[in-house]
Design a protein that fits this description.
single chain, globular, 266 residues, 10 helices, alpha/beta, 7 strands, Rossmann fold
């Protein structure tokens, strides 16, 4: 299926690692031009070098997204280089463990700055360009917005707000033909997830306890599976989809977890 996104310029925050890297690679495979906004110069440069060796265009911007000025710079640099922005994929964030009991008002605000503010700021500064291109926005959220997790108030609040903004922007931007959707992962093996697992005395046992509760296949969702849905939503093939929350989670959120491990071949 031709997604019709060849040569479209799409900003991906946190686009050099984990889910973001999966999205970046999927965009490249479909002929789009990803603008990778992230903090890690080495991984960003490596991706650009890899894609260039294949004759494919990409652009890395080293940036700390918690600053509104820096978010504006991402939009400005993209426009200076390509003259257009066709899409924005808000993805960067970190489950930082700022809880109600374990955190503080200052830490909670800091978590919002790391996980929520740049979603709004980037959309705001990209908006004029997106109006011209009739582009799309996809916000990567998390199951924690709906299920809770415990001891992560800042992250969960940010993810819930991202879903609210998805619906709000979908309404506000109808008049401009800009579609806005959200993708909701549950359990995805990323570098941050691996680090979290390593915090347990027995990471393998902890991982088994998680995966056996995932109804479809009893396995983690891959970054590529999140990327496929995200890039589809960015494309003209999803031209009448807006204001939607798409769960790519093996049924984790909505199916009874007692179904996990059931032999469905009988």
């Amino acid at each position: 299926m031709d997604l019709k996104i060849k040569d479209k310029v799409i900003i991906v925050t946190g686009g050099s690692k984990g889910i973001g890297e999966g999205i970046t690679r999927c965009l490249i495979a479909e002929g789009a031009i990803p603008v990778i906004a992230g903090r890690d110069q080495a991984t960003g440069d490596q991706l650009v070098k890899e894609f260039a060796a294949e004759g494919k265009e990409s652009f890395f911007i080293k940036v700390e997204l918690s600053s509104a000025e820096n978010c504006k710079s991402v939009a400005d640099q993209t426009l200076a280089k390509y003259g257009r922005i066709d899409g924005l994929i808000n993805n960067a964030g970190i489950n930082d463990g700022v809880g109600l009991e374990s955190g503080s008002p200052e830490e909670f605000l800091g978590s919002l700055e790391k996980n929520l503010h740049h979603y709004y700021n980037l959309a705001h500064f990209c908006l004029d360009a997106l109006k011209k291109s009739k582009g799309s926005i996809v916000n990567i959220s998390s199951k924690t917005a709906l299920t809770g997790q415990g001891s992560t108030s800042g992250y969960a609040a940010s993810k819930g707000a991202q879903l609210a903004l998805t619906r709000e922007w979908a309404v506000e931007l109808l008049q401009h033909g800009i579609r806005v959707n959200a993708v909701i992962p549950a359990e995805v093996m990323t570098p941050l997830y691996e680090n979290w697992l390593k915090s347990f005395d027995d990471p393998e046992t902890k991982l088994k306890a998680i995966t056996e509760k995932i109804p479809l296949g009893g396995r983690m969702t891959t970054s590529e599976e999140i990327a496929d849905m995200t890039v589809f939503l960015m494309s003209d093939r999803a031209s009448h989809i807006t204001g939607q929350f798409l769960f790519v989670d093996g049924g984790y959120v909505h199916l009874d977890r007692a179904l996990a491990g059931v032999d469905r071949k009988k």
